[in-house]
Design a protein that fits this description.
With 391 residues, this protein is an all-alpha fold. 50% of the residues lie in helices and 1% in strands. It starts with a strand and ends with a helix.
Length: 391
């Protein structure tokens, strides 16, 4: 066993206790090299919005700002690595630009609009941002029309609402090969239907805006890339810029190909990728410099389709919508291939999500009889009742 208090820079010594370990192995452990720790990219757009919310709403402003700066400045990724510290600074600026453009922050950096709703759902990024884009475009108001002469909504409206939320927040993928079992299910449809056309168009519009912002971020950070590392193969570490390298002809071609670009990985350039292609999110993950520690997961994009390594589309599990329709946990285990315990907790999380959205909307909406607010409240109560019936 080993450990220390964990206060970086303060507890410099830790104690190690070896119990029932042969002496030769203890000697090997003592003489072995210390593994190099490497931190993951620590920031997300939602996290930065939460930090801005903390700094703006806290009673002790100075203390809140100090805590926010501590998170931004002292990540393990940038520990003793100035280049990564600069990358994080630029990412912070990119995130602020996105948040201001999308009206989550004003020009002074104060949270406005749907900032509270987004931060409540921070663990669902980027679906939290997409949900707000639907609200801003009025798509939910178009969908949530009550039964004539009442404030209640039909089952058709509520099922469509669950379908949309499941596409955003209930994203459990099934293997592509599972599609061939389509005719063998008893109660569940199993495979989630696509988003309605107008909602899918809104997702594509949202992605286009985010891709453009992220491409500018990559163009800015490209100057911080370690080009010596970029011109080496990741496994063999072969350096193609060396004149003595067996691949000197490839090296010459590689150098000529990359002269006209500034933010593309040298090996992505071999496929004819140029800087302008960064504005198409499908190739961002392949084109970014490896040494930057950045990939497409750092960009809040929501891709509606996912494919396996054979190019086959992987369907989404319709467990959230199936349960709303039949209310059977057993059906989810027999048809939807879910473990009973996992299914229950996934449904519970989905139910709490609906209630959380309804609560946030009630705080934001001046009209207590707003149709979208009433629809989410009715759906939250209905889903909760179905969940209670199986416990």
């Amino acid at each position: 066993m080993s450990g220390r208090a964990g206060r970086r820079g303060q507890d410099m010594i830790g104690n190690v206790f070896f119990y029932d370990i042969p002496l030769p192995k203890v000697e090997r452990l003592l003489k072995s090299n210390v593994p190099q720790l490497k931190g993951q990219f620590p920031l997300t757009v939602s996290l930065i919005l939460r930090l801005m919310l903390l700094a703006a709403k806290a009673e002790d402003k100075a203390d809140a700002r100090a805590k926010a700066l501590s998170v931004l400045k002292h990540s393990l990724m940038s520990f003793r690595k100035e280049r990564y510290a600069e990358i994080l600074k630029i990412y912070f600026i990119f995130s602020l630009q996105f948040l201001v453009k999308e009206s989550y922050l004003d020009q002074e950096g104060n949270p406005i609009g749907f900032a509270g709703l987004v931060t409540h759902l921070f663990y669902h990024e980027p679906s939290n941002f997409v949900l707000v884009s639907f609200l801003v475009k009025g798509l939910f108001h178009k969908l949530c029309q009550p039964i004539k002469g009442s404030t209640l909504f039909s089952e058709d409206v509520l099922e469509k609402l669950v379908l949309i939320l499941a596409n955003l927040f209930g994203r459990k993928y099934l293997p592509a090969c599972s599609m061939k079992y389509k005719s063998t299910f008893c109660q569940s449809k199993v495979f989630l239907e696509d988003l309605p056309e107008d909602f899918a168009e809104a997702v594509n519009e949202y992605n286009t805006k985010v891709e453009e912002n992220f491409a500018h971020f990559l163009l800015t950070t490209a100057k911080l890339a370690d080009m010596e590392q970029e011109y080496r193969l990741p496994l063999s570490k072969t350096d193609f810029t060396s004149k003595n390298c067996h691949g000197s002809e490839l090296a010459s071609y590689l150098m000529d190909t990359t002269k006209s670009v500034s933010a593309i990985s040298p090996f992505a350039c071999l496929s004819g990728v140029a800087d302008n292609d960064l504005f198409h999110g499908e190739i961002v993950n392949k084109a970014v410099f490896r040494s930057l520690g950045i990939n497409v997961t750092n960009c809040p994009l929501l891709y509606l389709n996912k494919y396996d390594n054979q190019g086959r589309r992987r369907p989404l599990n319709a467990y959230a919508l199936d349960f709303y329709k039949h209310g059977s946990l057993i059906a989810l285990t027999t048809d939807n291939w879910l473990n009973e315990g996992d299914a229950y907790y996934a449904l519970k999380d989905f139910s709490l999500l609906i209630k959380s959205i309804g609560t946030s909307l009630s705080e934001l909406c001046d009209d207590p009889n707003d149709n979208v607010l009433l629809a989410f409240q009715q759906l939250g109560e209905a889903y909760e009742e179905k969940l209670k019936s199986i416990t």
